[in-house]
Amino acid sequence: MSEQAKEPRGDKGKGPVHVAIIMDGNGRWAQARGKPRLFGHHAGAKRVREIVEACPEIGVKYLTIFAFSTENWKRTQAEVSGLMGLFRRYIKKEAQDLRDRGVRVRFIGDRVKLDDKLVDLMDELELMTAGNDRVHLTIALNYGGRDEVARAAKRLAYDVAQGAVQPKDVDEETLPRYLDTYVLPDPDLVIRTSGEARISNFLLWQSAYAEYEFIDTLWPDFTDKIFTRIVGNYAGRTRSYGAVTR
Ligand code: IPE
Ligand code: IPE
Ligand code: MG
Hints:
- By secondary structure, this protein is α/β, with parallel strands linked by helices.
- The chain has helices at about 25-30, 35-55, 75-100, 115-130, 145-160, 225-235, and strands at about 20, 60-70, 105-110, 135-145, 190, 210-215.
- The chain has one domain: Undecaprenyl pyrophosphate synthetase (3-Layer(aba) Sandwich), CATH 3.40.1180.10.
- Strands 3-4-2-1-5-6 form a six-stranded parallel beta sheet, with helices on both faces.
- It is globular and about 60 Å long.
- Helix 2 packs parallel to helix 3 (about 75-100) and helix 3 (about 75-100) packs parallel to helix 4.
- The structure holds 3-methylbut-3-enyl trihydrogen diphosphate (IPE) (2 copies) and magnesium ion.
- One 3-methylbut-3-enyl trihydrogen diphosphate binds near residues 24 and 27.
């Protein structure tokens, strides 16, 4: 396990080190205004900067956001290509600023199905922010928890076949080294906006012991104030990890 993964967890009284967000409700937000769904996605993308900026002040070192799932390809071609265009423009527009504000950006998910131009921009942004450490922003793009575990198992199988790993040594410390998130600590808190109480294939392995917050606010209405309140609530929770603590 990486050094970072051994960082102290957010136990009672402490804030969460890693917060993950399922940014949901863009479509409904737009619909409520009689606008096309993409209008909601644009509004949603604009919320990200404020939430990233709030992190250092409230002690959140890692923020992971779900931008596009492996299931989201089922949407209309117009919405999918609109989202892909939005991701490209977002990276181009925000790259310099993210670097200047000390944000280290990483992407998780399967890049194979993504457009080459988008992948180049993702690689470039990772590279240009690689020296930053103020806040670690991970963007899940074409990400699915099951897909990630399957890809990890495949790579592990290759290592076993080549004799680099012995089958008897495969355990719950080994597999996460093959996950996209191998350098990240597990999320302490997962927030989902828009009132849906499900995890939709997000960080399945990593969230085994995460705390969850499901809130009704639609993602484009999510503010740093709401974020700070939810993160503050977390400190009052007791995480037992299966043991008896009270
Ligand atoms: C979340 O908002 C953004 C993505 C999944 C890309 P939605 O687009 O799912 O919005 P709703 O759930 O339809 O309102
Ligand atoms: C989850 O939202 C994926 C992202 C936020 C990127 P969805 O809107 O796609 O999830 P479901 O379809 O409601 O489960
Ligand atoms: Mg949705």
